[in-house]
Amino acid sequence: MTTSLHDDIYQLVREPIDIAALARHVRAPEDGATVTFDGFVRNQSHNRPTLYLDYEAYESMALAKMREICAQLHEKYRIRRVAMVHRLGRLEIGETSVFIAVSAPHRAAAFDACRFAIDTLKRTVPIWKKENFEDGAVWADGELPPAPAATSRAKPAS
Question: Is residue 155 part of a domain?
Answer without folding.
Answer: no
